[in-house]
Give the backbone structure.
Amino acid sequence: MNLETFLQDALDARRAAHLYRERATLYSPQGAAVSAARYGQPIARDYLNFASNDYLGLAAHPALGQAATAASAQAGFGSGASHLVCGHHQLHRDLEAALAARTGREAAIVFSTGFAANMGVITALLGRGDAVLQDRLNHASLIDGARLSGADFKRFRHNDVAHLADLLAASRAARRLVAVDAVFSMDGDLAPLADLAALCQQHDAWLMADDAHGFGWLGPQGAGTCAALGLGATEVPILMGTLGKALGSYGAFVAGSRALIDYLVQFARPYIYSTAMPPAVAAATLAALDLLDSESFRREALVENIVLFRREAAARNLPLLASNTPIQPVLIGDDARVMVIAKLLDAQGFWVAPIRPPTVPAGTARLRITLSATHTRAQLIALVDALARALAATEIKTLAATQTIRPQTEEADHDL
Ligand SMILES: *Cc1c(COP(=O)(O)O)cnc(C)c1O
């Protein structure tokens, strides 16, 4: 087959299905207000940003940039090699110690990305003959890690502990890993971690929580979802978190027992065969951890904004999901309508991410609104007003649109 023909056909099919994705280009620092060129526009415009995972407004905080600059002056910029060869810097070591302390675990290991951390953990722990059980709404990196591991891969219905119990009871594998998003990235709800932990203990299964969206803002000192629920290493022995969201930096970590971390250093291939993150990134992350304490008002402001948004959205009958986190999806359903609404909002200067399959299950396209500590009350009210108008303006279109049959060209990541 001709490569270019294959590529064009795939791109055409994606466009026809209203699933074509385009990258916007940012011309300003990350933040609540940004300048960006979206939807193929040649020039940048100002937006109120409701699409970022920079929940605390730390991505452009001067302390992070200053820490990175100072560290670069001392340590140079590039790390030069993987951690096991000669790239493991004192700053990486300090960051690992700080993350272990923050999460109340014995030890931690830093990965360059959350995607690599999830792939690394699952493929290191499991192989053929083992079993991995995951919530069907888990992040793609957990799913891909499971596929790559070669273990028997089962998915349970979203947050359905009874379904997981059935799968565990039916599994004969000696090693069983249960992995969930602690905060679901496209729904914003929490996993029932206490119930999952009890079930895993009962079945001698290993529980892994991916706290990409809880670490940094939830729980005491921003220690994350497990800390908020009072769950330690006994209940959740494998804790993964990312550093590019609430922390405003880059990278990820796994925290757990000393043995778990030692094991990952030996066996996690994305860790072993990949260049270490620049030490300056570790320094910026350490500065972000300090800010969680010295500027704890950010966490409080974020929680106030979540409450305010939900109250104002409910007053306008917006179709919210049951989320008490900065991820506040507005369920639309139809892929074409979600794009029309996102573009209407775009024209008014609101940057809201339309999320379609296969990122979410078919028929559940949504606007994924994310809130930041740095949004003002007036900005949030302006957003909910604009949302209400856009939903009303597209109501009739929806009826027509939902009746058209969407071609099923996608591999649905979330179908059981
Ligand atoms: C963002 C995210 C990841 C990936 O982390 P990166 O550091 O961006 O690679 C993993 N899991 C979840 C739930 C995420 O939201």
Notes: The CA atoms of residues 158 and 263 lie 30 Å apart. The chain has a mean pLDDT of 94. The chain has 16 helices and 14 strands.
